[in-house]
Amino acid sequence: MVFFDSVSINYITSKTIIPALKNVNLFINNGDHLGLVGESGSGKTTLALAIPRLLPNNAKIISGRILWYDTDILRASAKSLNQIRKNISIIFQNALACLNPLLPIGKQIADVLRYKAGKSVIVSKIRAIDLLAQLGFTNPEQLARKYPFELSGGMAQRVLIAMAIAAEPRLIIADEPTTGLDVIVQMEILHLWRDLLSQFKSALLLISHDIRVVIDLCEKIACMYHGEIVEKGVTQRIVSDPRHPYTAGLMQSFYGIQKRMFPFIPGVPTVSVQEQTCGFLPRCSFRTEKCLVEPPPYVQIEEGWEVKCWRPLGLQTCA
Amino acid sequence: MRYFTWWSVVCLFCVFLAGLVVPLLYPRDPRTPYPGSKLEPPSAKYWFGTDVYGMDVFSRTFYAIRVDLILAIIAVLFAICIGLPLGALSGIIGGIFDEVIMRICDILQAFPPVFLAMTFLITLGNNLSNLLIVMALLNIPVYAKMVRSVAMSLKTAEFVQAAYAAGHSRLTAAMKHVVPNVLTPVFAQFPLSCAYAVQMIAGFGFLGLGIKPPEPEWGSMINQNATYIISGCWWPTIFPGIMIILFSFLLNDIANKLHKLTT
What we know:
heterodimer; A: alpha/beta; Rossmann fold; 2 domains; 8-stranded mixed sheet; 4-stranded antiparallel sheet; 11 helices; 12 strands; disordered C terminus; B: mainly alpha; MetI-like fold; 9 helices; 0% strand
């Protein structure tokens, strides 16, 4: 459905050029649930925003193409892009900021139905209330008349989910949908997501730096570092047996916290244009002579599991 | 809803209503001079006295509410009708269009208002429609710049991005999500601009621009009778002066409260 073919995107500022995506190859199939993990600034959001072509003005596409079926999104006309966007829903991190403050909730959901699914005014109004009821609101008619400022963070997040699934899109992009919510509400939202994903056939691209959320919801995972996908494959396999040193560090941090240890990856991410070899090199404890000279290739561990490393870790269990 | 006191709105409404009703009930015409009773002090016959031409000051003062306030409101609405779309487009489209519009606004604001109005009215004719145009011209940059700044920040707001992501075109997203949200500061600015416009119209009237006697207008009333203050005839100038202050105060107070309510 969506295919990233060697996509490179830079952010151009007045002083410098920041590479946000470097030769990214990724395939999201119909009904896939893919989790995108990585630390802040690793390019997760840029990758997600590139699909509906919502990148900021200073983003420059250097090379590659993003295919939506057969259409190249990066070069599509405004008309065909709008058609593609009707099949995509985005949930941003700050739920309250995603709702128009001047329109009641019910109208905003109904608008999505009218615009994306071409439903009539009355049908979309009724369906909006149905959706709110489906998402566990006890008094949906009353809620439909409320304005965003009257909602809590968790409620706003659920309303956004209602808007996202309203027109049954082919792809839902969720950019850190549980960040900023308290733990109990996070759990509620995760349960909700799980239920909805089993009901709908939509594909999900979930961006998070909370690995627990990704393990919970996604059967596939891609780990990003420094604008590159360093490891991708089946979630369970990668979580239990990570092969890239960065992924391993990430998993160690996660499982370490569960064991009341606080391991961390040494060093801080660097941003540099000149760097031609591995992005993780300055922080990697497993680097070799070769890592200093040449950028690493993608090594296939098994079908659908790839690691971008000269020296993928051996069987190493972190859990 | 946050705390909002209505007393200034109620006062303004009452005074405006008086402006509509008093000339209908009070027997003396605001434009008719009574030659035998020039500069009569306030009495039961002439409540606010008469002016230098023998015209009734009470009738003129209240009749002028229609002229000054309605003219001010029309001029500001006219400015909003042009400034709002210009500012919104400027903020959303950006680039050269934005540069051109903003530089024109800068040029308009660079002139001192009275100088601009005098030049305009003297060149194109000293009449009511030209006064309206010049008042609108003075207010257009205020609205265009204000709306532009809000539109620019809204352009990148997440709910507008979400609208783009939903497949809305730039125009639809702008009309549906940006424009309604820029109206809030416009509402707060509206009474303030009206207060300023009332002062400007009275100011121009005082300088002999715009509305001409015998049409009642506070500024021109003060101008005609100002020289008689020193001979003790305070009534033809004090009452219109009080009205200007009252309207400016009430409109400023409403603007202030609206501003607090919306921020």
